[in-house]
């Protein structure tokens, strides 16, 4: 697949890490996470759900206003392999319209819920030159294990320059993990950057 259209890592030329957060914006958990990122001068990318944008528009605007990249994570977070192609594309287009009203970009990189991209949808995206963003490092925060346990797993399997980290802002876990990990990563010489936005 064309690397420019299906992204799994960022640039490995520098000691950069790319934090990405799925499933927000969340009324309780997104704001404290933004506060933490700001306190460390860290940028990230947020793959937002359309119905969550409608429920929390000010948070979505805050994410963009603080220099983070907005991505598309569908409108309702469905099982895409159970939808028709037209329904799949409607999920993406409805969310793009909401995101465009916030950051002015016509299109946004898409991350499919659960990482499931049905073949016909992928072919459609490639034909229209739409970008899909996956990840190279899974934080496992969705397993709901204790934050300390997840931090130890990450320490045993260290991140590498250019890694795109999969995380979520629908619980306290990412906040608890990153409060420990960001200072460690910065001490190791890593910078935390947002993925580039769609043109």
Describe what you observe in this structure.
The protein is of the alpha/beta class. It has one domain: Alpha-Beta Barrel (TIM Barrel). It contains seven helices and eight strands. The protein has helices at residues 30-39, 50-55, 57-65, 85-103, 119-127, 147-156, 173-187; strands spanning 6-7, 16-22, 45-48, 69-72, 132-133, 137-138, 164-168, 191-192. The strands form two sheets. Strands 2, 3, 4, 6, 7 and 8 form a six-stranded parallel sheet that branches. Helix 6 (147-156) packs parallel to helix 7. The longest helix has 19 residues, at 85-103. The radius of gyration is 16 Å and the shape is globular. The model has no long low-confidence stretch (mean pLDDT 95).
Task: Give a short overview.
This protein is α/β, with parallel strands linked by helices and 199 residues long.
Helix percent band: 25-40%
| Quaternary status | single chain
User: What is the SS-derived class?
Assistant: alpha/beta
Number of domains: 1
Report the total helices. 7
The overall strand count is 8
Shape: globular
Per CATH, the architecture is Alpha-Beta Barrel
CATH class: Alpha Beta
Measured between the Cα atoms of the first and last residue, the distance is: 20 Å
- SSE order, one letter for each helix or strand: EEHEHHEHHEEHEHE
For the sheet with most strands, the description reads: 6 strands, parallel
Radius of gyration: 16 Å
CATH H level, superfamily name:
Glycoside hydrolase/deacetylase
Q: Name the average pLDDT.
A: 95
The proportion of strand residues reads 5-15%
């Amino acid at each position: 697949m064309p690397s420019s259209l299906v992204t799994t890592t960022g640039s490995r030329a520098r000691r950069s890490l790319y934090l990405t957060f799925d499933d927000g914006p969340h009324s309780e958990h997104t704001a404290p996470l933004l506060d933490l990122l700001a306190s460390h001068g860290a940028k990230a990318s947020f793959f937002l759900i359309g119905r969550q944008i409608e429920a929390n528009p000010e948070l979505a605007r805050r994410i963009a206003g603080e220099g983070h990249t907005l991505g598309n994570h569908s409108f309702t977070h469905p099982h895409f392999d159970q939808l028709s192609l037209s329904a799949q594309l409607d999920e993406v287009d409805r969310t793009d319209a909401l995101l465009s009203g916030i950051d002015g970009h016509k299109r946004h990189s898409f991350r499919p819920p659960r990482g499931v991209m049905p073949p016909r949808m992928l072919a459609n995206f490639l034909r229209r030159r739409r970008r899909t963003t996956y990840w190279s490092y899974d934080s496992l925060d969705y397993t709901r294990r204790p934050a300390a346990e997840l931090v130890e797993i990450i320490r045993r399997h260290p991140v590498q320059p250019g890694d795109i980290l999969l995380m979520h802002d629908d619980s306290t876990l990412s906040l608890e993990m990153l409060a420990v990990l960001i200072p460690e990563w910065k001490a190791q010489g890593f910078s935390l950057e947002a993925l580039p936005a769609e043109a």
